[in-house]
């Protein structure tokens, strides 16, 4: 794993607060050093309990979670952070099985990074998620407090809240929320995978988009086998089929 000192090539996104929970002291020190070199504020924790206590005291902009912690399962931490906050979440783990990656994304993580990692890639992933949390989708409305109504649903962009017709509420992750917003601002148009993820250089083998689409369908009660809202256009992308009204 690289340990060389980094020279930041571009400024950090504001003065963002990042929490890291990692019980390996050497890895924790490396990540904290990397993020601080790029002008992020960073606090590290060695247990899930200490992280969650700090999250309740001061919500961060992003949390990096190691899965193998001494006191609790990392997936449970991701789930609790997602239920309590709208911050970005990255899983950093040595578990390389595709099932772990899919479970992490389905639990609510915005990204999953394998150990050993390349420092510049970690910083790039952090920046990408923070941009998605901060900015409305490209071409979107300047006012992020608008709400969209569609097919019996109401979506509040500023809080990532999705409200059903019966008043029940579902909270989306940052990645899910930004993806839904892109759909809502371009209904009845085929959107390529790169546009939905807000990235221009995704690998053709990157399945994270499919996992997020599956999660979004489930929260919208959209049958994955016969979807009525989010349809797959093979070889082209995805199509959101609904009339959308902005209020």
Automatic annotation (TrEMBL):
Keywords of this entry: DNA-binding, Phosphoprotein, Transcription, Transcription regulation, Two-component regulatory system
Pfam families documented for this protein: Response_reg (PF00072), Trans_reg_C (PF00486)
Limits of the Response regulatory domain: 17-130
Regions annotated as coiled coil: none
PROSITE patterns: OMPR_PHOB (PS51755), RESPONSE_REGULATORY (PS50110)
InterPro entries: CheY-like_superfamily (IPR011006), OmpR/PhoB-type_DNA-bd (IPR001867), Sig_transdc_resp-reg_C-effctor (IPR016032), Sig_transdc_resp-reg_receiver (IPR001789), WalR-like (IPR039420), WH-like_DNA-bd_sf (IPR036388)
CDD domains listed in its UniProt record: trans_reg_C (cd00383)
Signal peptide start-end: none
Residue span(s) of domain OmpR/PhoB-type: 145-242
Residues where 4-aspartylphosphate is found: 66
Ranges annotated as DNA-binding: 145-242
Protein name: Response regulator transcription factor
Organism encoding this protein: Vogesella aquatica
Organism lineage string: Bacteria, Pseudomonadati, Pseudomonadota, Betaproteobacteria, Neisseriales
């Amino acid at each position: 794993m690289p340990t060389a000192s980094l020279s930041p090539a571009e400024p950090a996104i504001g003065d963002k607060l990042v929490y890291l929970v990692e019980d390996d002291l050497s890895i924790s020190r490396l990540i904290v050093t990397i993020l601080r070199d790029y002008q992020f504020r960073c606090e590290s924790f060695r247990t899930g309990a200490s992280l969650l206590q700090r999250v309740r005291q001061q919500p961060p902009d992003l949390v990096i979670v190691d899965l193998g912690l001494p006191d609790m399962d990392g997936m449970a931490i991701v789930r609790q952070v997602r239920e309590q906050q709208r911050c970005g979440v990255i899983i950093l783990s040595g578990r390389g099985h595709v099932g772990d990656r899919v479970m992490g994304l389905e639990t609510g993580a915005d990204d999953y990074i394998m150990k050993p990692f390349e420092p510049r890639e970690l910083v790039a992933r952090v920046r990408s998620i923070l941009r998605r949390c901060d900015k409305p989708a490209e071409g979107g409305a300047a006012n992020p407090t608008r709400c969209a109504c569609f097919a019996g649903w109401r979506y509040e962009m500023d809080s990532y809240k999705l409200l059903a017709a019966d008043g029940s509420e579902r909270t989306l992750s940052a990645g899910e929320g930004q993806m839904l917003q892109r759909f809502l601002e371009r209904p009845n148009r085929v959107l390529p995978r790169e546009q939905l993820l807000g990235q221009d250089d995704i690998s053709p083998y990157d399945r994270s988009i499919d996992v997020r689409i599956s999660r979004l369908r489930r929260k919208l009660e959209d049958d994955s086998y016969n979807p009525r809202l989010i349809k797959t256009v093979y070889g082209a992308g995805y199509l959101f089929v609904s009339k959308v009204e902005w209020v």
